[in-house]
Write a structure and sequence with these properties.
- With 213 residues, this protein is mostly helical.
- The chain has a domain at 59-182.
- 60% of the residues lie in helices and 8% in strands.
- The chain has 5 helices and 2 strands.
- It has a two-stranded antiparallel ribbon with strand order 1-2.
- β1 and β2 form a beta hairpin.
- The two termini are 91 Å apart.
- The model is unreliable at 17-24, 35-40 and 43-50 (pLDDT under 50).
- Keywords: Membrane, Signal, Transmembrane, Transmembrane helix.
- This is DUF5683 domain-containing protein.
- InterPro entries: DUF5683.
C-alpha cells in the first residue's frame, strides 16, 4: 500500500515538473512561428541617383560667337551636325543670287555707259550679228536703264536675304545652345485632363500642367 502511494506521489511530481517545461517549449515554438509569420521579407531597392545637369552659362555665347566667325561652326559646337548643310545651302543660295544679279547689273551698266560715251560696240547693240536697217541697236538706251534698275533691286534684295540668313545662323546656334541645357524631367509634365462636370453631368476636357518641387 505504501509502495502504491509512493508511486502515485512520484507520478504526480513528474507531471508537475514536465507540464511547465512542455508549456514553456510550446510557448517558445508559437512565438517563433508568429515571428516567422509576421516578419516581412526585406526588400533591398537599388539607389537611383538623379541625373545631374551641368549648365554652362557661357555656352550660348560661345555658340553664337563661333557661328559669327564661320557659319555652321556654332552648330558643330552644339553637335547639331545635320544643320551644317542647311546653313551653307541657305547662305550659299543667297550669295549665288546676289552674285548673279550683280553681274547682270554690271553688264547693262557698262553697256549703258559706253552708249553715253558715244560707242556702239557693246554686247547689246548688235546681239544677233545682223545690223538693223535703220542702224538702231537691238537693246535701246531705255531698255538698258530699266534692266539696270531691275537687277540692282534684286541684287540689293539678295544681299539683304543673305545677311538675314547669316544672322539666323547665329540666332539658331544661340537658341539651340540654350535649349540643349534645358532640364526636361518628370517634375514638369503636361498631360490631357478629363474631369466630370457635376453641373451639366457631362465631361470637361483640358490640359493639366504639373510642377513638382
Amino acid at each position: 500500500m505504501k509502495k502504491i502511494r509512493l508511486l502515485l506521489i512520484l507520478f504526480a511530481f513528474m507531471l508537475t515538473v514536465y507540464h511547465p517545461l512542455s508549456a514553456q517549449e510550446d510557448k517558445q515554438e508559437e512565438t517563433a512561428k508568429d515571428s516567422v509569420r509576421t516578419e516581412k521579407p526585406e526588400v533591398i531597392r537599388d539607389t537611383v541617383l538623379p541625373e545631374s545637369y551641368t549648365i554652362d552659362p557661357l555656352s550660348p555665347s560661345k555658340a553664337a560667337f563661333y557661328s559669327a566667325i564661320l557659319p555652321g561652326l556654332g552648330q558643330i559646337y552644339n553637335k547639331r551636325y545635320w544643320k551644317v548643310p542647311i546653313v551653307y545651302g541657305a547662305i550659299g543660295t543667297g550669295l549665288y543670287f546676289y552674285i548673279s544679279n550683280k553681274d547682270q547689273y554690271h553688264r547693262y551698266r557698262n553697256a549703258y555707259k559706253r552708249r553715253l560715251a558715244g560707242f556702239s560696240d557693246d554686247e547689246f547693240y548688235n546681239i544677233d550679228g545682223v545690223v538693223n536697217a535703220d542702224g538702231s541697236p537691238d537693246v535701246s538706251m531705255d531698255a538698258l536703264r530699266r534692266a539696270q534698275e531691275y537687277y540692282q533691286r534684286y541684287k540689293d534684295l539678295s544681299l539683304l536675304i543673305t545677311i538675314g540668313l547669316y544672322a539666323l545662323n547665329i540666332i539658331d546656334a544661340n537658341v539651340d545652345a540654350h535649349l540643349k541645357q534645358h532640364n526636361i524631367s518628370q517634375d514638369l509634365t503636361l498631360r490631357p485632363l478629363i474631369v466630370p462636370n457635376d453641373f451639366t453631368t457631362g465631361t470637361t476636357f483640358g490640359l493639366s500642367l504639373n510642377f513638382n518641387f
